[in-house]
């Protein structure tokens, strides 16, 4: 239960099966914290008004689909009554001339029971016009309707109707039908309607402008609809090349690494040194320090330019007299870098062999328990469930605010101090829980891979199941402590980001303050990266030895420092090969997706599955393939780290290593 104490005797070696709970205090704290999360969630869901998220506000600040009270400013006005919008759920922007600027300037809007579907093509009838609220329109009619009425076109005088037809208000014609999208009326425009509208005449207003406004609002939505339809039509491409292809080719790549990791590593190292030598010689040639004949190059002149004569090309890489001095300095620099690289390679040959052996052993461990490839499924499902719940609570917390209207008529949502603190608590809970789920995933995988290293001859039948049981039964407190430390740093980074945005203007006039802010943000970012790396290795030792978090973290740091060179080589080689694997798998899946989209069923305009463009299906396929490759390569990286740290721990014991596989022993 101690934080920095060791729960198992030092003389115990191998994978410890008999354990006791570690960091129980933080397990209790984490459970209590989640009690608070549930209280906040219940408060948000019970007090939050979902109407704020579902319906839109008209340009007076009143919410459609509700029966709001009058704002204080409006209550003092004469003749105004509280609106009843309980049946008027859709928001309609009734002036098409404002569509092109509505992203910058709020457009006039009203609440309606249904989106307009009758257009002026049906005649100058009441249903073909949408009016501003009568009470705010500034017009007077003989039989005044309700203050919030929007269908009084037939009651206007002839002059007012003519003004409305000329887009001068108070009513505005419906040029096209509208359809509700998320309780907002969106124009449904076809090419035929646009052509008809462009040839029409509506008073003194240019119909070309109106056509442009409607086309700008609906053109993008049409494109989006086409792309979404392409996704539905190309579902077979996405399933076969994205999901199945990503799975198959990731497994093939890891199998390839099992047998050819050594070859690929040596080719990479040798190629790196050869490239450095070639660059050094090239710079020496350009500087005139080495003659072309001395390196076996036929030189036809001293110019480095390329000369084209007819269909022939002559190329020379002799001395560049204009930049010879610059190339001389670059040559010395490159020679120093090349020499250091060669020396480093010679000194690291033995460690490179160990790195290759670790990669092969990691592949063998995965081959011994292939179901380990699907161990990320549990953290993935937990993340999906948690983020779904966290987003729901966050949205309802936002909806708990109070609507307020300022003197300028702008409506905003304000939150009291209690809601603000609840939001901060919820934000920290997101950071903490996310890191906790990451820790669970690391512990599950590390415990199973460690069983292969320490118990190869007597490995249990279900190492993955036993690893999950050990992590959940004994080490939830250790994961909670490690994730809490990272969450604190992430929370501080979020606060710094907020302060940075709020002080942008101040920083523009004070470069010192801007520099300090950048330094602090970078330091916190770097601290987070370091803590995550320490956590990863600490969780591995917790999974292997059953130590408490603090002791595991300290012991992991000692092992990393004592084996710094060895670990650096292993991480470099392993990271490069896994990164290369992600690129290869993603590239293959993308090429296959393009080839499938070239099949007749997707290119024939008469086909039901005709694609307007293969771009979006291929992009989605590539994204899915990369995510799958990243997940599976993440398991491989975790296996490499576990084997590496287990080997370092094994070597650290008296007379060790005792449990290392033959590949590592050799």
Please describe what this structure looks like.
The chain has 666 residues and is mainly α. The chain has helices spanning 24-47, 51-54, 72-75, 134-137, 158-165, 191-198, 207-233, 235-287, 324-347, 349-368, 377-398, 417-454, 463-474, 476-502, 504-508, 511-545, 549-562, 564-597, 600-603, 615-652, 662-665; strands at 90-93, 109-112, 129-131, 171-173, 178-181, 184-187, 306-309, 312-315, 402-405, 411-414. The strands form five sheets. It has a two-stranded antiparallel ribbon. A two-stranded antiparallel ribbon has the order 3-4. Helix 11 packs antiparallel against helix 12 (417-454), helix 12 (417-454) packs across helix 16 and helix 14 runs antiparallel to helix 16. The model is unreliable at 200-208, 214-220 and 299-315 (pLDDT under 50).
Features:
666 residues; two-stranded antiparallel ribbon; two-stranded antiparallel sheet; 6% strand; mainly alpha
Helix/strand layout:
Elements (H helix, E strand, L loop, with lengths): L23 H24 L3 H4 L17 H4 L14 E4 L15 E4 L16 E3 L2 H4 L20 H8 L5 E3 L4 E4 L2 E4 L3 H8 L8 H27 L1 H53 L18 E4 L2 E4 L8 H24 L1 H20 L8 H22 L3 E4 L5 E4 L2 H38 L8 H12 L1 H27 L1 H5 L2 H35 L3 H14 L1 H34 L2 H4 L11 H38 L9 H4 L1
Antiparallel strand pairs: 1-2, 3-4, 5-6, 7-8, 9-10
